[in-house]
Amino acid sequence: MLGYILRRLLYAMPVLIGVNLITFLLFFSVNTPDDMARSQLGAKYVTQNAIEHWKQQHGYDKPLFFNQESVGTGKITETLFYTKSVSMFAFHFGRSDGGRNIGHDIVQRMWPSLALAAPVLLLGLLTNIILAIVIVFFRGSYLETGGLILCIILMSISSLFYIIFGQYFIGRVMQLTPISGFSGGWHGIKFLILPVVIGVIGGIGTGIRWYRTLFLEEINKDYVRTARAKGLSQMRVLFVHVLKNAMIPILTGVVVIIPSLFLGSLIMESFFGIPGLGSYTIDAIRTQDFAIVRSMVFLGAVLYIAGLILTDISYTFVDPRVRLK
Amino acid sequence: MSESLLLEVNHLSVGLHTEAGYKKAIKDISFRINSGETLVLLGESGSGKTMTALAINQLLPAVAGYSSQSQVNFKHEDLLSLSEVQMRKYRGNKIGMIFQEPMSSLNPVFTIGQQIGESYKKHTQLTSKAIKAKVLSLLDAVGIPAAKKRMNDYPHQLSGGMKQRVMIAMALAQDPQLLIADEATTALDVTTQYQVLQLLKTLQKNSNMSMLFITHDLGVAAEIAHRVAVMYNGHIIENSNKENFFNKPLHPYSQRLFDVLPDIDKRDRLLKAIPGTVPPITDTLVGCPFANRCDQAWEICHKIFPKLTKVNEHKVACHLYTTDHVPTSIQHDKQTVLKKNKSSGTILSIENVKIFYPIRSGILQRKVGEVKAVDDVSFILKKSQTLALVGESGCGKSTLGKSLLQLVDSTAGCVNYQGRNILQGKNSIQLRRDIQMIFQDPYASLDPKKTIFQSISEGMKIHGLSNKQTLLSEVDRLLDSVGILKDYKYRYPHEFSGGQRQRICIARALAVKPKIIICDEPTSGLDVSIQAQILNLLKNLQSTYELSFLFITHDISVVSYLADEVAVMYLGKIVEQGSVYQLLEDPKHPYTKILLSAVLRAKKEQKTPAKLTGEQPSPIEPPTGCYFHPRCPKAMAQCKKEYPKKAQFGENHWAACHLY
Prior knowledge:
A: 2 domains; 71% helix
């Protein structure tokens, strides 16, 4: 098991190096430091001097990969790739183009993101599983047909609608929750209720339909017939025998996104004014702060790889047939 | 044995709600089972056996419905009038059930102890400690060694035979009065099958339990039955006690079931195959359902359904026994006697072939061991003859077959074909043409997105055997030779039945005019009546095209009918080889002897086989010395030390055993 994890971490390194290199190349070939300086300075009459000054100030005045003028290891280390990209492996994200400490911002902002994303995931999972199993229990009845039609309707509506409708109807007309905003500590809960509910509802249609497929697939397997031949009730067959088997794909599908919860949701956070990493990314894109965007892309890749490794490990806990070597 | 009535099924009819409306499937069947008695429900797939079993227990899928006359009386209580909740008191309690596939019938995420214990939780008030003790004694009773340790195992940690024992333990947990066994031994190897059948018989004797035993295998029926009921197209067409049925089956279909069994006595002629296929169970035919496949049918058979009537001690549904005016002109087709090709020399010689799979471990994936799938195997395939490679599952026979076409990489050894080693280097296109393969599963071995014309002609195009003009006529000729209507050539595989698909696979193999065909269990997925058709076809093709067959199988009766020479494999090694007569009539190796005696025969006196104990060991760490010694009844001290040398008996017969 330990050997397996070590091996997977080892395999993850080339992937991360690839992600790092490719994002660096993309960002710096599409958008050279000169372009960055121009868009940041923003004024109409930017002089070459001002550009050079900006680049020097923000550390963009070095060559891309190889520094001829430097000596020793400096030839490699005093380059844009080393200072801006390779340093991210040590989670040194440096300063944003606007001058902020990105590492500090990330640590600050990931908690609000988590405060929104984690309840959405957990509550969503719970509702989807329960509703899916209820629909499966009443299979062949009108309840199933009605439920499925409702799922398709919920799926077809854009999540923006839920957000705007919720903010208008629940926040403004009924005044049950604040329309947007955030505060730390337990007081923050009142701000989170509406976005969490909307997040859960937004995922219900796809979630139920997917879990229902999983349950139906299990319910037709031979072991279900064996369980019924033992004289077990439908409830016990569904909630013990079928559920435990169907939880294998459900859980592993969830585990892969757990690390990415820190990254938050782009849309929800900016609509509800939650100062998480999602809105941080959106703001950075809007202000063309590429240092932040690059950091977030790299962080996303790291967390996704972590999710994949966690998924494989979680298999050993839910499926006795899987043993990692 | 007390003769009290336990189960009485009266006028049971079950229909299915399909897209084409309500279709009758089980058509008005009645039978009785006394306590302590075993009724075998015999029939080919799609005859309604499983549906009958599920109907008794009310486990049918939601699309099925009973007719109003149907009655299932269990100790004079009509089960069909019970509610689902009341019915649960019968299931697993008074009626136990075992299913065909032990691999998928157990829940993979619960330990076997939990799964067996569940039955006690449902039907008794025992404490969990008492349940544990019960489960332990049950596992002991069904012959699972080290039951205490095994209890906490998950199903995947057990072999197929062990899983079926667990299923039996689960079914027997509440000492049911009726055990329904649905093809309970079909998925098992012959030696395991024999063990499981003996176990069921012993358990039955001890508790006076009744059994409804569903099978398609006459040999199994002969071993376990007290009574036999034959099903066809959802009807029971014959019902009799075992002795009468096996001495003189009355229904033409039952008679034919015996005729189609391959056997050593039938080697020189074609099997009396039943033409056509079993009609779908949802078809309700006018007249006798078997009439259009029956060689004794006349007008009345196509018009009036024959009722099940008593003839002496028998019950049979056939006009032959109820009408006085049986036309005498009924033709009995003559048996074609086959000419036997004289063999002329070697076509393929296999020398010391080894196929090892590395086992890797650790961060750097270093090799830490080997699975010896095929371990130093040599034999010779003679021209236009059939060599059968026999062994139980996991012995390496299929791997060896695939390696001859380089579908599996071999580790060492050589296979000489026309003066060159075909295991090494890139195989020439000519070689691919000369050696073809027919696979076990005809459902999976045809490309579903290609018409059968495309599948058959593909090889001909690759090898440049045909141009555009002749391609069509050539495919027509091939389809004709395997008995498929040439009008069907633009159809897709899913439009054919299993037997037809296997014919198409054979046509595809023949298309490139091969010299050798490797047949990997080509009939084991087919019903016996279809198997006979395919065996006849193979036999005919062999004599027409002078083909050589390497026939890989576990089925001894097929071997006895088709093979000229036999090689028996155990754990990657050939333990005995000889001509079919030498090997079947005078086996030398203890393993061969046990294997042969475990084969259940429908008509012959059953020899009591020497008991084969234990499980086939893992090919990763084969036992020291002779691989078979831990299970061999005649093992000596020497057997543990060294692998035995070949002992010759006559020209071509040898066995690797220290006894000789």
